[in-house]
UniProtKB/TrEMBL annotation:
<feature type="signal peptide">
    <location>
        <begin position="1"/>
        <end position="18"/>
    </location>
</feature>
<keyword id="KW-0274">FAD</keyword>
<dbReference type="InterPro" id="IPR012951">
    <property type="entry name" value="BBE"/>
</dbReference>
<dbReference type="InterPro" id="IPR050416">
    <property type="entry name" value="FAD-linked_Oxidoreductase"/>
</dbReference>
<keyword id="KW-0560">Oxidoreductase</keyword>
<dbReference type="Pfam" id="PF01565">
    <property type="entry name" value="FAD_binding_4"/>
</dbReference>
<keyword id="KW-0732">Signal</keyword>
<protein>
    <submittedName>
        <fullName>Glucooligosaccharide oxidase</fullName>
    </submittedName>
</protein>
<dbReference type="GO" id="GO:0071949">
    <property type="term" value="F:FAD binding"/>
</dbReference>
<dbReference type="InterPro" id="IPR016166">
    <property type="entry name" value="FAD-bd_PCMH"/>
</dbReference>
<dbReference type="InterPro" id="IPR006094">
    <property type="entry name" value="Oxid_FAD_bind_N"/>
</dbReference>
<feature type="domain" description="FAD-binding PCMH-type">
    <location>
        <begin position="44"/>
        <end position="213"/>
    </location>
</feature>
<dbReference type="Pfam" id="PF08031">
    <property type="entry name" value="BBE"/>
</dbReference>
<dbReference type="InterPro" id="IPR016169">
    <property type="entry name" value="FAD-bd_PCMH_sub2"/>
</dbReference>
<dbReference type="InterPro" id="IPR036318">
    <property type="entry name" value="FAD-bd_PCMH-like_sf"/>
</dbReference>
<keyword id="KW-0285">Flavoprotein</keyword>
<dbReference type="GO" id="GO:0016491">
    <property type="term" value="F:oxidoreductase activity"/>
</dbReference>
Amino acid sequence: MLIPKAAWTLVVPILASAAAVNKHTKLQECLTAEGIPGPANLTFTITPFNLRLPFTPVAVACGVKAGLKINPKSGGHSYAAHSLGGEDGHFMIDLKYWNSVVVDNTTYIATVGPAGRLGNIAQSLYAQGKRAFSHGTCPGVGVGGHVLHGGYGHASHSWGLALDALVEAQVVLADGSVVIASNTSNFDLFWALRGAGSSYGIVTQYKFETKPAIDQLINWDLKYVWTKAQARQVLDVFQAYANSTDLPREMSARLFIAASGVNFWGVYQGTQAQFDPIFNALLAKIPGTPQTSNIFSSDWIGSIKQWAFMDITMPLDYDIHENFYSKSMMTNWISAPELDKFTDYWYSVANSNTRDWYCIIDLHGGPTSAITAVPHDSTSYAHRNALWKFELYDRVANNVAYPAGGQNFLNGWVDTVKTTYPGTLGMYINYADPGLTKHEAHTEYWLDNYEKLSKIKTKYDPYQVFMNPQSVNS
Ligand SMILES: Cc1cc2nc3c(=O)[nH]c(=O)nc-3n(C[C@H](O)[C@H](O)[C@H](O)COP(=O)(O)OP(=O)(O)OC[C@H]3O[C@@H](n4cnc5c(N)ncnc54)[C@H](O)[C@@H]3O)c2cc1C
């Protein structure tokens, strides 16, 4: 591989079976011959974001030679610990030092290393000429995995996903070659990377088209406690709103549902005078009176800080973890009976669950959304038409075991829609659900793009070197 050896962080193999020990030996011999060191702190390097899934990878830049499956780790935020392999015994390559952000002051193209974390990237782009692109809200997420599978945040309804800003990727392929993927070079690979990237290689450099950061935004956080009937009415209001031209492209809207009530969150790219009539018309349709209401204007970085809920400057040795199960739904129009069942479950099973759960509902697509405006076949991201994006999350304290069978809670909630939903319910691989079988993952994450993805996999990685339990098959 052409990548400088000194830059890799390597994980020492810890294997038990004879075959595995053999692979380990081959790997170790190769590493020693190449002068590649092991990591200084193995435990730190292999502790996943989701503590429920503590997989043990093996290491080496000679992984292919030793017959190992390889997984790059950028920010390490995969919900299914896919950057550790998603199961024991993989070769994990930690890219954590590859985190530079440089904006070209003529083209405003940003060249970004895969392990850049979103909070640091946003600040660095802003410092280099007040530039920005759309991405998620959590400042600790690595751009590496985020952009290869979507990348949704408060700017996405207006500007599209993070992957829509990607104009070029430098990729190390399974045969060790380094190629450029873009609209003019290896376009099939570029198509596949933007939605299913972890199955095709190691992206060592990203180029993003940036925009001028918006200097005036309106942010809001309204806390409601609705009756079940009111909550059900709100779902109708929001679904109709997402599906209409009343929702301005410049607005993002999100419901954060928890046991204590619902926060209505959002961001409007524009002035207070532009915002007021639009927002007041929407509020008039929402039942009840908010218990608390915080509506304020900010600049770009002020808005990023507001929705991060933590400091947005991330240290190199970021060390935050949670212990959870999560699911997603990426749906088009949801029928009234399905919304009835969803709300019944919310007000019975969910509200009586004493664990720390939440459900985030975003107005993702629709006639005014920049995500839907991108032609459906131009990237492998399969959910452009999804009106709704749901994230369901159920966590326990880091020092206790997630309960056996605890997954039934969110599986049951998703089933209220899934069992009668016409066609395949989409799911978002950036919220990877390790409970899905490989076939379910292929179908739900990539819908009708899967067949094409599989053909491209056969071309670029026929022996499935880049593999996790849900990756695209060659
Ligand atoms: C606290 C938290 C908040 C989040 N908030 C949001 C949000 O607001 N919006 C949103 O859309 N998503 C969000 N996510 C989901 C997040 O986008 C995904 O988990 C994302 O894949 C993480 O990327 P990473 O580089 O940090 O993770 P990693 O675990 O390093 O990587 C994730 C996957 O991508 C692969 N990969 C990583 N780097 C590369 C590379 N350079 N080349 C090829 N493959 C690579 C890995 O092998 C793995 O399969 C959040 C996740 C967490 C934990």
